[in-house]
Design a protein that fits this description.
The complex is a heterodimer of chains A (353) and B (245). The longest helix of chain A is centred in the C-terminal third of the chain and has 22 residues. Chain A is of the alpha/beta class and 353 residues long. In chain A, the strands form three sheets. In chain A, strands 2-1-5-9-10 form a five-stranded parallel beta sheet. In chain A, strands 7-6-8 form a three-stranded antiparallel beta sheet, with helices on one face. A two-stranded antiparallel ribbon of chain A has the order 3-4. Chain B contains ten helices and nine strands. The radius of gyration of chain B is 18 Å and the shape is globular. Classes of the chains: A alpha/beta (353), B alpha/beta (245). At the A-B interface, helix 5 of A face helix 3 and helix 4 of B.
Chain lengths: 353, 245
């Protein structure tokens, strides 16, 4: 029989499960990412998104890269206090941004395309921002203070958009709660951390693939209208849902959410030159890693997992672009241990019966 | 016959800034009268960093004993809060300008707004991170009444002489300075310390000291840091008022 030619013959080892995955120790699997963007230590990088995004900012800073803190803690505030008040967690004090729609909202408000809604939450005489209810422990002392603080954060987002080269956004959820008539999306379900749940005005919404895709495209388009050089690196948080209001089992709801988000991220990276996708999700959740990077609660990611994720990030950057040569920044002390990630969604656990 | 009222034994403890207080007494600008007995203890320059808190007392390291003796003049080798009714921590390397300037500059930025909670916590954290403030906290846990006057703002002459742009500080809302002092006083009170703000009459441009309160010869010496006896007298008067209250 004559030899037949086929496209698989000339593919590298990484194209085959057996040689690219199964025959390797988990920590030896390499080449997962073919980066489109060259991250240099001098480039300003903003991070935002769900809980997992906090690790990326810390790791970049620790390696001497320019993680951009657009809303730094005031001089004099110590590290513990800064963390308690949510400084230095993301590039600005939005708290977790779990969905693409929430990102689009923040960007629209920051770039003054839309006014933020006037809705505020109250609890025991204190005021809470529906779009970042955990940002001040104990809430704000007045509505005016809440608004002034939010304006500062919006100014910080503008600054990050204008000054950064890269915007790293970690997609966390498809599930959300929004105002039924006005459409604005809350950071959390009203009535959980603050506010009052009203079935008439508050509705559950599970974002679909098409909406997530179009929201991300719209968000980046807005950002690039301010800063044409800005590019977005997407990641998908491997952290499962704390709770689901979808009516399904939280395990399958998680799979649905993450699969949808992964599909959007993959599409955008493949089809749009200003998006890329970094596979931190795969490193934590896929079979070769055997779930070893999950904490005992099977949600949190342990420091070893974060370390391997970032090791792959820098390895693939060096593999494709060469080792970094411009050491314009000295490595910063790691901001805080990986175990101290702030995850507002986790408080939903308090409502588990 | 009633016995004479007991004098309040006050120790003025600090770095080179206690010179202003000493000169105030020397020049007769403050009369301790019959109610106050004042003693000094401390060290100047880098020697001030050679003081440690050991078993609740401030103890000099080897090598600065002579400086301590010169400043104290009473043979007191260590500063024990049990030996005084009150201790006035003076300057003690806590420089007001290091908090005020960044806070005032930040107030201009659109992303610089701070909630009251963050504002107050910032002031409290800044104060408490200082080693000498922690000494004051330790003293305050005893029966000793602890007062504190942090290092005064630099002279206004600095604004025209060091080539830097201070417009952001000059044009900041003065209410912010008031808020900072209030936050510092409150934080110190939580630690049982009476913090005496720099007297408003001595301040200009939000965080500079008026030149009339500079120490003698400051201009020739290019010393923007130290105040003179007029300032020292105001400090003593404020401390005495607090002790009498």
């Amino acid at each position: 029989m004559a030899d037949t030619q086929n496209p698989y013959q000339d593919l590298p080892e990484t194209a085959f499960w057996k040689r690219g995955v199964a025959e390797n120790a988990a920590f030896d699997i390499r080449g997962l990412w073919q980066p489109k963007f060259h991250f240099r230590p001098g480039h300003k990088v903003a991070t935002a998104g769900s809980c997992f995004a906090q690790h990326i900012g810390r790791a970049l800073a620790a390696r001497g890269y320019h993680w951009f803190d657009a809303e730094p803690a005031p001089h004099g505030l110590n590290e513990d206090s800064a963390r308690r008040f949510n400084y230095g967690i993301f590039s600005f004090r939005t708290g977790n941004i779990y969905t693409a729609r929430a990102l689009l909202q923040w960007v629209s408000w920051a770039l003054e395309m839309e006014e933020p809604p006037t809705e505020l939450w109250q609890k025991q005489g204190r005021f809470y921002d529906p779009f970042r209810p955990a940002i001040e422990p104990g809430g704000f002392e007045s509505a005016d203070e809440l608004i002034a603080s939010r304006k500062a954060t919006l100014a910080a987002i503008r600054r990050a958009i204008n000054e950064c080269k890269y915007f790293v956004f970690t997609l966390g959820l498809t599930e959300s709660w929004r105002h039924a008539d006005l459409g604005h999306e809350y950071a959390m379900c009203p009535g959980t951390l603050a506010g009052d749940f009203d079935a008439e005005n508050h509705e559950f919404h599970n974002h679909k693939y098409e909406n997530i895709r179009s929201d991300l495209i719209a968000a980046l388009r807005l950002m690039r209208s301010e800063n044409p050089k800005l590019q977005m690196l997407l990641t998908v948080s491997p952290v499962p849902l704390t709770a689901t209001a979808s009516g399904h089992h939280v395990l399958t709801a998680t799979s649905h959410s993450k699969s949808t988000l992964r599909a959007v991220a993959g599409f955008l990276a493949a089809e749009h030159s200003h998006f890329d996708y970094f596979p931190s999700y795969e490193i934590i959740t896929t079979p070769p890693y055997r779930g070893m990077f999950f904490e005992p609660n099977l949600r949190g990611v342990n420091p070893n997992g974060v370390a391997l994720v970032m090791e792959n990030f820098f390895y693939d950057q060096a593999r494709v672009f060469g080792a970094p040569v411009d050491k314009t920044r000295t490595p910063k002390r790691a901001l805080k241990a990986a175990s101290d990630v702030v995850c507002e969604e986790e408080m939903l656990d308090a409502f588990a019966r | 016959m009633p016995s004479p009222a007991k004098k309040t034994r006050l120790c003025v403890f600090g770095d080179s800034h206690i010179g202003a207080v000493k000169r105030a007494l020397n020049d007769g600008l403050f009369d301790p009268g019959t109610s106050l007995e004042i003693e000094f203890w401390g060290a100047d320059g880098p020697r001030f960093r050679m003081l440690d808190l050991i078993d609740g007392r401030i103890v000099p390291r080897e090598g600065i004993e002579e400086t301590i003796r010169t400043i104290n003049g009473q043979g007191r080798e260590v500063l024990d809060p049990a030996d005084f009714d009150a201790v006035l921590f003076t300057a003690v390397r806590i420089r007001a300008v290091e908090l005020f300037q960044p806070m005032l500059e930040r107030s201009h930025r659109p992303d610089g707004y701070l909630s009251r909670a963050v504002f107050d916590q910032t002031c409290a954290d800044w104060l408490r991170k200082n080693k000498y403030y922690r000494m004051a906290q330790a003293f305050a846990e005893t029966d000793c009444h602890v007062l504190m006057s942090i290092a005064s703002f630099p002279s206004e002459r600095m604004m025209s002489q060091d080539g830097k742009d201070y417009s952001a500080i000059e044009t900041a809302d003065p209410a912010i300075s008031d808020r900072i002092w209030n936050a510092l006083v409150t934080a110190a009170l939580d630690d049982d310390i009476t913090l005496i703000p720099q007297p408003a009459d001595t301040i200009t441009a939000n965080c500079f000291s008026r030149a009339e309160y500079d120490m003698a010869g400051a201009e020739e010496a290019e010393d923007f840091v130290h105040r003179g006896p007029l300032y020292g007298a105001m400090l003593l008067a404020a401390a005495a008022a607090e002790l009498a209250a």
